[in-house]
What does this fold into?
Amino acid sequence: MLTIVIRTVIVYASVIGAMRLMGKRQVADMQTSELVIALIISEAAALPLENPSRPLLSSLVPVIILVALEITISILMMKSRRFRGVICGHPIVVIQNGKLIKEEMNRLRISYEDILSLLRQQEIFDIESVKFAVIEPNGSLSVMKNDTGDANGTIESEEIKDQLNSLSEEEQEAAQ
Amino acid sequence: MKRGLAVIILLILAAILISAQYLYVTSQSELYIKMLDTAEDQLAENEVIKAQESIEKLDHRFVGSSGMLKLFLYHADVDAVSVNLSMMRRYIQHGELEEYMALSAGTKRTLHNIRESQQMCVHNIL
It folds into this structure.
């Protein structure tokens, strides 16, 4: 039984060390890859605790490799916007100037009621008061209201600007 | 930069542990299979005393290295080989050579499987 106690302490210290090295955030703020890695690490680390016959190294080595992978991916995501898009996805504008962008909603498989629910959670009950609403890669909704103090009313994000530009071009073509 | 260095250190550590496991387990498995083959050859030539000494030496050696093996392998697998070796010693001491040969074949297969489990091949990955 004492061996299990010692194993537990070793595994706990290793997982804490791994999480500190990766610089974890709250679950709600995690990117997809971070959440996947955290889940896999917890599963791998628990195996030698469930089965004392299992060598400790058979769990610690995968944890080490997962931590190295996660740090590498996070460095690559910092350096490459395209890579970040592949791993995490892009923020998507779903409301612009009080109007829902149905194509993006369909792409995200998100309904009108879902959008209203997310708005209500931010104490917004009138969709027309929204200048921009963005679904973030982690699934949360960010909102810029019409009465925001920013005179230009722009969003500092290359990805969102690209999306808005492409929407503007489509609107112009539709008007013609 | 610090994180990059952390990645390199972690990968080196993982590489060292993986290499150590592969080299140690593979070499020990091959050694024990060879020792079992030697004992079988001695029995085939009716050198029962020599075969008994070989098996005792093998058993003693295996017990000594089982601690290290248990760092890398499932303890149950290592214990199974250890139990088989002690049974083989008894069989050969009591002249039960048929039982000895059957157990020797099973033990060699187990050691062979242990060695194969360390190889980089498709069926190990999948």
The longest strand of chain A covers residues 130-135.
